[in-house]
Design goal:
single chain; eight-stranded parallel beta barrel; two-stranded antiparallel sheet; 14 strands; about 15% strand; globular
Length: about 375
């Protein structure tokens, strides 16, 4: 019977344990939207995770949705990320990069020449983003033209190649939390006609094409995807038939042989079992379709994470906020040690405080 502390082969990557650091936006990119010196130290401190999935990183200037988030589309960004991956590898860790396009969750002030955000639709959600003036309403988007979509797919392909060039062990494609790919997936958002709208197969087409492009570029054994079938994060209602939609998508991806599928269970940042979900979602049905490792996420603690691995519910468990305040989270979980409290006021933006100054067990006494 495996434990959360046992090694595992995840696609082409060998992990020392099954504890994953989830991608966490911290808004600390420096000039040029690059990771800086503090970010190098931040990830190095957390290298005992079996896998680090680095923060969501935009694949193009049009993919940005929040102030001071890093990119992976310029040579300068690749060079900066190389220092991060070298630090993690030097400490014995493994690290993937999450590839991100926010779609309509953005603001004109963050985009080239004040452009409108792009999406599957021209409808604006009642959502906010973080810009130079603080939290602001997102801007009205415009619907991508069908002929523009191959360019977006090419951006994902290029970003995946740049991630490998930067020394990452692989990439995770962000198709969760109602950013661009999920804006195409859900019929609650996607109101278009043509090859990328209407039927489930058409709405899933962009996500499938992106995954085909990325895996053909860097190999399926170094590629994962993140999904959030039941979240309403970013003011996005659930699909009218989420089970059928995500069963189809995971079934389509099965033939690619992905390293893993990473699923946010329930509501992002909330309950794994939302009270307003009229029909329970069967994550087990997706797991049965998955041909790679199955990674679960959302509020797991030491005991339920251990159970999930022991009973086969999951192959990997991702932890988010606990990794922010506990760089030595793996040790704390192993020893049953108490966790450092989280500095909520230091989550987004700023310097070392609440970022690289959380004590490890020995330093904490």
């Amino acid at each position: 019977m495996p434990t959360i502390f046992d090694p595992i082969e995840m696609g082409d990557v060998a992990l020392a344990n099954r504890i994953v650091m989830a991608p966490l936006t911290r808004n600390r990119a420096v000039a040029g939207l690059k990771p800086g010196e503090l970010t190098i130290e931040y990830y190095r401190q957390r290298a005992s995770a079996g896998l680090i999935i680095a923060e969501a990183t935009q694949i193009s200037p049009m993919g940005q949705g929040y102030l001071d988030t890093p990119g992976i589309y310029s040579p300068e960004q690749v060079a900066a990320w190389k220092k991060v991956t070298a630090a993690v590898h030097g400490s014995g860790g493994r690290i993937f990069l999450q590839l991100w396009h926010v779609g309509r969750i953005s603001h004109t002030s963050l985009l080239p020449d004040g452009a409108a955000p792009v999406s599957s639709t021209n409808r604006r959600p009642n959502a906010k983003t973080f810009a130079a003036d603080g939290f602001v309403d997102v801007s009205e988007p415009r619907a991508l033209l069908d002929e523009e979509i191959p360019g977006v797919v090419a951006d994902y392909r290029r970003a995946a190649r740049y991630a490998i060039d930067a020394g990452f062990d692989g990439v995770e494609v962000h198709s969760a939390n109602n950013y661009l790919l999920e804006q195409f997936l859900r019929d609650s958002v996607n109101d278009r006609e043509g090859p990328y709208g209407g039927s489930i197969a058409n709405r899933a087409r962009l996500a499938v094409e992106v995954m085909q492009a990325v895996t053909s570029e860097i190999g399926a054994g170094r590629t994962g995807i993140r999904l959030s079938p039941m979240t309403v994060f970013n003011d996005t209602p659930r699909d009218s038939d989420p089970q059928a939609l995500y069963n189809h998508l995971v079934g389509e991806l099965a033939s690619l042989g992905l390293a893993y599928i990473h699923v946010i269970q329930g509501e992002t940042g909330g309950s794994r079992y939302p009270d307003d979900a009229k029909v329970p979602f069967d994550y087990g049905a997706l797991r049965a379709l998955c041909r790679g490792c199955w990674m679960v996420n959302n509020g797991y603690g030491r005991e339920d994470a251990k159970r999930a691995i022991a009973d086969g519910t999951a192959d990997l468990v991702a932890f988010g906020r606990p990794f922010i305040s506990n760089p030595d989270l793996v040790r704390r979980l192993r020893e049953g040690a108490p966790l450092n409290p989280l500095r909520e006021d230091k989550l987004y933006g700023g310097g070392a405080e609440g970022y690289t100054d959380y004590p490890e067990l020995d330093a904490a006494g």
